Amino acid sequence: MPMLADPSQRYRPFKPLPFTDRTWPNKQHQKAPIWLSTDLRDGNQSLANPMTNSQKLRFFSHLIKLGFKEIEVSYPAASESDFNFVQDLINNGDIPDDVWIQVLTPARSDLIRKTFESLKGAKNAIVHMYNATSCLFREVVFNADQEETIRLATTHTQLVRELAEEYSSKYGTNFRFEYSPETFSQTEPAYAVQVCEAVKKAWLSGSGSTWGDGRKEERIIFNLPATVEVSTPNCFADQVEYFSTHISEREKVIISLHTHNDRGCAVAASELGILAGADRIEGTVLGNGERTGNVDLVTLALNLYSQGIPPHLDFSDMFSVIDTVTECTGLPVHPRHPYAGELVFTAFSGSHQDAIKKGFEALQKRQAAGDVHWELPYLPIDPADVGCTYEAVIRVNSQSGKGGIAYIVKQAQSLDLPRRMQIAFYKVVQSISEATGRELSVQDITDALRREYHVGGAQFDGRIVLRSYNLTDSITDGTATPADTESGPDRQRTLTAKLLVDGVVRHISGTGNGPLSAFLNALKFGLGIDLAIREYSEHAIGGGSDVKAASYVEVIPPNADSKDKTQGGFWGIGVDPDITGSGLRAVLSAANNSIGKSELKGAAFEDDEKKLNRMQ
Ligand SMILES: CC(=O)SCCNC(=O)CCNC(=O)[C@H](O)C(C)(C)COP(=O)(O)OP(=O)(O)OC[C@H]1O[C@@H](n2cnc3c(N)ncnc32)[C@H](O)[C@@H]1OP(=O)(O)O
Ligand SMILES: CC(C)C(=O)C(=O)O
Ligand SMILES: [Mg+2]
C-alpha cells in the first residue's frame, strides 16, 4: 500500500443525500417505538463464546420480563444449537401468546427452508430475510449488479411467502415478514427504495391471502440497517426520511431501524431516525453486538423516559438487567455506561455534591407542595427509578467537599450539620481521605463523625461523659413567683450533673439563665473548663413517640472574639430524647474537643463511685 504523508487522506468523506425537504429537525418524540431485541441473534453472533442454551433461555425470559413483545431469537440455519433453541422455546411453551419471535435468514433457499423448519409449531413468527444492497457489497461480495441484487431479494421473498402460507396452513402460525436491505446506510437511497418496492410487490403477490393489507400486525417490516455506521446521525436521519416519504403504500409498511455504533452515534442516529419517520427499533440491552455493538435499548428507552414518554420497557430493576446481561454474555458493563453503569449517578467532586445536596432539599420542599416533577442538578433521572439507592449518589474522596459529606451524614445518621460545622467536619474527613489515599465509605465517614464528636456509643466517648443531670428553677431577686418568671429575665436554672471524668465519677453544679449556661458554669467551677457558646442549633430526628432531638454547638474560650467566626471554635453534637439533654450533650461533646489532653481542675465533689471505679 502506498504511504501517504497524511494517512487520513486514505478515507473519503461520506456524501450526504442532497435532500432539502427534511422535516425531522422540527419534530419531537411523541411515543415509544416498537422495540425488537436482537440480543439472542446479533448480540449472540458477536460473542467469542456464544451463549449456551440455558443462558439464551435465561436472557429470553428476562426480555419478556422487561416487556419486549418482539424478540429475534436466533439465526436457525447457523447451527444445530441455534435451530434447537427455537424449537425448544416453542415446544416448551416458553413464548407468551402476545410475543412474536423473529428469526434471521440470508436470501438463500436452503437456509430459508431450514429456518421455516425451526418455526414448526410457533404461534407468532417474524421471518427476517436480508441481503446487502450497497455498491461495495454488490461488487465485492456478491459480484452482482443492481438488477441481479433485486432478483436475489425478490425470488427469495417469494419463497418466504410460499413457505409462510404452507406453514401457516399446516401449523396455524401467524407469520410476518421483515426484509433488511443490509448496508442500507451505504446504499444509494433511491436504489434502496427500489429494492424494497420490488420486495413488497413480491411479498404481496402471494396466493389468495390478505397479508399486508395494512393491518398493523401484518404490515411488512422494512428494517433499515446502519450495518456499519458511516455518517453523522443527521445524514442517517435524512436517509430514513427519504425512504419513509418515497416508499409507496407507506401505511402498509413498518419502518424499522437497526443501527450499529461504529462512530459511537447509534443512539443519536436511532433517535433522529425516529423523528424522520421510523416506527420500530432493533437493538440490544446495554448495546452488545458486532464490533462496537448494536444500539443500546436501555439508553434509548430511558432517554424517552427522561422526556416524560413511557418507553413501555421496564428498567426499574437495573441490577437484575446487568446481572442477566453480564452473566449471559460474559461482557462487563462499563462503570460510565448511561443509566446502568456503577458510577453514573455518583458524584465525587465537591461542587457537584453541593449542588445535588441542595437539589434534594429543594426537591423535598417542592414535593411537599405537590410538585411531582423531577428536577435536580446533575441527575437527569431519579436513580430510584432504575432501582438505585441514594447511597450511590454521593461518594467521598479527596475531590469531595463539605456539601457531599454533610449529605452522607444526613442520609446515614439523620444529622443536619449546620453550615460552619460542615466546614469543620469536612477538614477532618479531608485529612483522613488524603492520609488513606482512597475513597471513604459511608461507614468511614460515620465512624469519623462519632470519633470526632463522641456520639454513638461508649467506644466513642470523650474524657468526660454525662451520666445524669438535674435541673431546678430559682428566682434571682426573691420577689417574683415562679409563675411570673417562667420565661422571664429573672429566671435562673441550677444544674447538677453527674459526670464520669477520666473514668472517675464527679458531681458538678452551676447556675445560669438557661440549662446550657448553667452547665457551662458548672464545667468552669467544677472542672476548670471555661467556655462560651458562639453558635447553637437544634432539630428533631424522626417523629411520633420515637422523636429525638439533635443539638449542635460551637464553643470558644471566653476571651475569644465571638463575632470573628474565622477563628475556629470547638464543635459538639448531642442526641437525646429530650431537648435539654441533647443541648447538654452537645456542650459536653464540644468541651471534650476543647480540653485535649490538658489537666482538669481538682477532684472536688468526688463521691463513693470514684473508689468503686478505681477498684474496677
Ligand atoms: C450484518 C449481519 O449481521 S448479517 C448476519 C450474519 N450472521 C451470521 O453470519 C451468523 C450465522 N452464519 C453462519 O453460520 C454461516 O455464515 C451460514 C451457515 C449462514 C452460511 O455458511 P456458509 O454456507 O459456509 O457460507 P458463508 O458464511 O461463507 O457465506 C458466504 C456465502 O453466502 C453469500 N451470502 C452472504 N450473505 C448473503 C445473503 N444475505 N443472502 C444470500 N447470500 C448471502 C455470500 O455471497 C457467499 O456466497 P459464495 O459462497 O457463493 O461466495
Ligand atoms: C441482518 C442485518 C439486519 C444486520 O444485522 C445488520 O445489517 O447489521
Ligand atoms: Mg446488525
Q: List the ions, cofactors and other small molecules found in this model.
A: acetyl coenzyme *A, 3-methyl-2-oxobutanoic acid, magnesium ion
Count of DSSP-assigned helices: 18
Largest β sheet strand count, sense and barrel closure? 8 strands, parallel, barrel
Globally, the shape reads elongated
The computed structural class is alpha/beta
Tell me the number of strands: 14
Low-confidence stretches: 611-616
Q: Average pLDDT across residues?
A: 92
**Percentage of helical residues?**
25-40%
Describe the structure.
With 616 residues, the chain is of the alpha/beta class. It is 38% helix and 18% strand. It has 18 helices and 14 strands. An eight-stranded parallel barrel has the order 1-2-3-4-5-6-7-8, surrounded by eight helices. Helix 2 packs antiparallel against helix 11 and helix 8 runs parallel beside helix 9. The protein is elongated. The termini are far apart. The C terminus is likely disordered. Bound molecules: acetyl coenzyme *A, 3-methyl-2-oxobutanoic acid and magnesium ion. Acetyl coenzyme *A binds next to helix 1, strand 4 and helix 5. The site of acetyl coenzyme *A has 16 residues, from helix 1, strand 4 and helix 5.
